[in-house]
UniProtKB/TrEMBL annotation:
The lineage of its organism: Bacteria, Bacillati, Vulcanimicrobiota, Vulcanimicrobiia, Vulcanimicrobiales. Residues 89-193 form the CAAX prenyl protease 1 N-terminal domain. Residues 199-393 form the Peptidase M48 domain. It comes from Vulcanimicrobium alpinum. Binds 1 zinc ion per subunit. This is Peptidase M48. Keywords: Hydrolase, Membrane, Metal-binding, Metalloprotease, Protease, Transmembrane, Transmembrane helix, Zinc. InterPro entries: CAXX_Prtase_1, Peptidase_M48, Peptidase_M48_N.
Length: 394
């Protein structure tokens, strides 16, 4: 059996599994459109956690299969089909074609995995029409961003065929910093309505923020309930664009002292400069990924990045490296979250409110207090709620 035969067999298996999974989800999606699946009789966090872990593993498999098929099966024929296009348009056209195939292929999967399952577990009241509207907006926005970034990247590779990896790494920090400003200011309002928080809660949050140098930040409430019943809050923005955003699901369900503890946690990220640390760490990750993937590309093909098909293979190797380093990235994130918890406790001095907030998060978000250790290592960007409660109790 030759290496080519083995490769074709693996690609066939990957494509078959991917299309089989999609076909099953398509049948389920059509059934749900005719007769929606009913709510489960009880909200069981352990059962929900097992389902979400299985879906996470399935998503990894689907992504790997899709990237492999693009890189080693359809990439070269698609590249040849696009040869008549002007050189600056070939890479964006290639990327948009692959993205369109993925969007159509993954529609039923995302509908069932991301919409139906959330609804039957009682985590969302969103209608199918609203879900599709959000997905159309996200797909259109993603296509535009993809076209621009791929065009810029391709131009960089053409102009600097030897030094493009280092130039890409150098461009990463400013791009991430710009995204930190643009996304909360212009992108997120496309999906939710933001309005000022008022009353005693706003006064308390403003006083807390003022103690740590962000007293002029916008304090906003957004209609998170449009998509989910889960609670969340975040502090985002840099260089005068800071925003403290609270989901209505948080404000309406949490006591004010619990909400203040959550806000203090988010402020901890800002005060400890976690956004800038995140940009630095992401740049390091991009460096390792780009350099490693480029080395693998040259080793396996004997060529550098000389066209869209090679770009697809580069993306496949980059995804493998990202998956390999995922547990390290998650461990770093969990450390930052634990540090933000300690900051919140020091800022509020209210460990009781913190414990109540974490327990309420577990109940409202249908989260396991103590998920399996392997799942935490592989997938979790936050420590388990049980460990966070124990840390506050000490």
């Amino acid at each position: 059996m030759t290496a080519k035969t083995v490769r074709l067999g693996l690609l066939g298996a990957a494509a078959g599994l991917g299309f089989g999974y999609t076909a099953v989800r398509a049948v389920q999606a059509l059934r749900d459109q005719r007769t929606p699946y009913p709510l489960l009789p009880e909200r069981d966090p352990q059962r929900y956690g097992r389902v979400r872990r299985a879906l996470s593993l399935a998503a990894i498999g689907r992504e790997a299969a899709g990237l492999a098929v693009t890189a080693f099966a359809i990439g070269d024929p698609l590249d040849r089909a696009l040869q008549p296009l002007p050189r600056p348009l070939r890479a964006p056209a290639f990327a948009l074609t692959v993205a369109a195939i993925d969007a159509v292929h993954g529609l039923a999967v995302e509908y069932v995995d991301g919409f139906v399952i959330e609804r039957i577990y009682g985590n969302s009241d969103q209608t199918a029409r609203a879900w599709f509207a959000d997905r159309i907006k996200a797909t259109a926005l993603g296509a535009g961003v993809t076209a621009v970034l791929v065009a810029l990247f391709d131009a960089l590779v053409v102009r600097a065929p030897r030094s493009w990896p280092w130039l890409t790494i150098a461009a990463t920090p400013p791009l991430l910093a710009v995204a930190t400003v643009i996304v909360p200011t212009f992108v997120m309002p496309l999906f939710n309505r933001y309005e000022p928080v008022t009353g005693e809660l706003e006064t308390a949050i403003r006083a807390l923020a003022d103690r740590y140098g962000v007293g002029n930040a916008s304090i906003l409430r957004f209609d998170m309930s449009r998509q989910t019943k889960k609670a969340n809050a975040f502090v985002t923005g840099v260089l005068g664009t800071e925003r403290i955003a609270l989901g209505d699901t948080l404000i309406d369900a949490f006591a004010d002292d619990e909400t203040l503890f959550v806000v203090a946690h988010e402020l901890g990220h800002y005060v400890r400069r976690d956004p800038w640390l995140g940009i630095a760490l992401s740049t390091g990750a991009v460096a390792v990924t780009i350099l490693g993937a480029n080395a693998l590309l040259r080793r396996t093909t004997g060529r550098g990045l000389d066209g869209p098909a090679q770009g697809a293979r580069l993306a496949f190797y980059a995804a493998l490296l990202q998956f390999a380093f995922g547990p390290l990235a998650n461990a770093t994130s969990r450390g930052m979250e634990a540090r933000a918890d300690r900051f919140a406790l020091a800022a509020t001095g209210d460990y009781d409110a913190g414990i109540r907030a974490f327990r309420r998060l577990a109940e409202q978000n249908l989260a396991e207090l103590e998920p399996p250790r392997w799942a935490e290592l592989l997938f979790a960007s936050h420590p388990s709620l049980a460990s966070r409660i124990r840390a506050l109790s000490r």
